[in-house]
Amino acid sequence: MSVIGDYPDWSPHVAHADQIAATGVPLLTLSNRLYQQATPNVTHGATAGSGHLAVTQIGYEILLNVQFGAGTANPFCQVDLIWVDTTTGFTVAHDTYYVPGATVSGGWLTVGRGPTKANQLDVNVTNLDTVNPVTLGVTVLQNSRVYPTDIWRWRNDVDAGLTIPGNTLPSLPSDTACLGLVNSANIPASTNVSWIGGMAPGDLVSFTFVTGSSNYRINLLGLPVAQYGGAAVLIPTAFSASTQTQQFIAPAGPIQVVVGNIGTTAFTASWSMFAQT
Q1: By percentage, how much of the chain surpasses pLDDT 90?
Q2: Which of 31, 61, 103, 177 would disulfide-bridge 143, Cβ 3.0–4.6 Å?
Q3: What is the pLDDT of residues 224-234, one digit of tens each?
């Protein structure tokens, strides 16, 4: 109830504007669910789609739960967000992301948020494995928060300790900026050791590597390899100093860290990746 003297309906409601300026608009960012669907056994190469979702607010949030069976060779899904202006029928934006799946019930949790880009959204999730099915959970929300850009991350507090088939995870602390870290890992002679790190699409990422050896090579690659190619490295590979820090722009999927020992004796190495969002 207004405690300030009102004005006649045919006059400007300056008092209302003053009160809104003083107290804010607490319900303006209220979330509304656009879509929620669990889809089991999406076959290899198949797509599960949301259909046309009518978007009326300026922000979106998405939660993806992805579960693959053990032994899956390519445990990734492609997520396409297709933004359409219904007045013209034009697709004004098409955003693509790559998310992994875990073997545990409930799957690997990836969350995203950002500005909406049109008044209609289609969410398509495609199973990129060539053999195994995938079980999906997709939830899409809209709200009136002002997001300056899209931010997609793993939920480290949920995903840490899970298994992505065929991949080794680094430590994933609850720090949302941390895409992975490894402390004093043993790198045997003439061997490559790799880990799958988190995602931070389009963000600047700092990678720091520490070892007592100079007989090493490092590759950072976008995953899945079939989409990004195994030779498309994200940082230079010819290092020799015992401590290195490099920065790069992250791809729209997980980041593979490969440390190679080109010497004849084992060494230990530590590394970390942090997104600067």
Answers
A1: 79
A2: 31
A3: 999 998 777 88
